[in-house]
Structure prediction request, 219 residues.
Amino acid sequence: MGLNKYRDVEYSDDGCEVYECMACKAQWEVRYFPTAYCGNCGIKFEGQHECRGHRTPRWEYERFDGHYYAETLDDYETRQANENEKAATKAKEKVWVIQKRITLLESEYSWDYESDAEPFPRVGEWRDEYRSDRPAWLHPARDIHAELVRHRKYDNDLAEAEAYTQRIEKKQLCETVTEAGGDVSEWGCDRVTVEKFEHRVVTKFRGDARGSVIYYRER
Prediction:
């Protein structure tokens, strides 16, 4: 006598799966499995029989799926406890962190120059931008320093280019307003936003580090 279970044979098409009754071997194709009885032999199912699908290679099933079905509740709790312990240990590793701070030197907005506004320069807070994937003792400091120099140059070159472009646009606006007989001061033609970027490298616990990951590249 067969099992009082059904099994998922394979995916067919358009969100549908092919199921098979383990008692009478009848197969049917449905998108969902709402029934508790076999439509062919009428047996009441006790549940799904977990097994490898027709199109799933054995190595893939055993590596990625099989152990989840085979392990008991105690095995699952033990594995979860081990994974949590590893995660906690990894979170306490020290990693390199590249931080960035933005200083606002000038602003294009008139309200930034009002009497109650914060004076310039306005120094921002250090924020995590990048973090190393390896522990600090395994990730060469020279590579992190090279990343710092690259990002420092890129950010400041970009800020300088944006300020230069803004000055040209403001100059053109100023000429247009003057030709139209308008008040140049109302348009803020003489103001642009100028920022300075600073970078530094610190070490932090992995669990506290933020930012994009810098992957170590073998040389």
Summary: The chain has four helices and eight strands. Residues 6 and 21 are 4 Å apart (CA to CA). The chain has two domains: 6-70, 93-214. Helices lie at 58-70, 73-91, 141-179, 184-187.
